[in-house]
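tool=predict chain=A
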Amino acid sequence: MRLLVALFAVLGATVVSSLPAYETREPGKSCAVEGPKPVFDYEVKILIKGSSARAATLFKKPHFDGVNEGTDVTAIQTWYDSCQIFEGWYGGWDKAARSIVVEKGFKCVFFTNADCKGTPVLQLGDKKRFAVLGQLPKEADGTLRSAKCPKF
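tool=predict ok
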């Protein structure tokens, strides 16, 4: 399936911290936004033909690159708020995620172990806005093995 990702800047965007910059994309241009936290100052529209029941979208490449559902990009579905183990998912998603978008109203907790136990390496989510990470932090980049994505 085709995946279209479009980022639109919201007026009055703010810098979330003074730490190293992560990059996000708008159609035709890039912009750097500082901070290790997800970017909340961008509205994200993800259109995947035939599916709208997602809590989060995982991408195998940084900056939301990829068009093939399953092999380049996959979803954590909304009806699963229990532990989702990436091992065995179609497309080989164990330790593969490089960028993430969490839908409005969901909080995803990501782990480097395959059972959602222990200390999470990454937590993303917001009640009213998309949480967007175009480049995962070093400790999470290519290391994620499981996640929980309950609604707020």
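The radius of gyration is 14 Å. The first strand starts at residue 3 and ends at 9.
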